[in-house]
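Hey team,

Filing this mostly as a record. A colleague (T.K.) asked me to run one chain through the structure pipeline before their review meeting, and I want the input and output archived in the tracker in case anyone asks later how it was produced. No errors, nothing strange. Just documentation.

Input sequence:
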Amino acid sequence: MSDPETISDADAHAAITETILSYAEYVDAGESEKWAELFCHNATFDEGSEVQGRAQIEALLPKLLRLFSATSHHISNIRINRTANDRASATSYVYAWHRKHDGTDFEFWGRYVDQLLFEEGAWRFSSRKVEQFGARGLDIKVDHVPRRKFEPQ
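Output structure:
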């Protein structure tokens, strides 16, 4: 899959889905280098504070994982919109369980808002933003998903 001009939408969606799912697998396995390779060289990653560039993104994962003895990320509701032959946007939902070193759990419900680019023969994140629906067990600073306003009945 080296030329985005010849990749069908179905093949692009499958490859982008693989990128999104690999993200969770590599985080849980603590594979920082493989995880970072899912990002473009100039990518941004925003999990409450923005990190720029693949090297900084790779350095971030061990710092985050040091907080926990185990993690398990579950991805669902993947939506992909191919915006050009070599570009796409996507959203996916995440439930992430974390075991803290004191034996208690931290749970996170949220979504990933992604921009992807076909770079170096693969679909990679050019930006990934983490948004929170809810969390339990740890006070974290992540943007909350905007909610619709409902009129009281």
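Quick notes for T.K.: The longest helix spans residues 9-29. The two ends are 54 Å apart (CA to CA).
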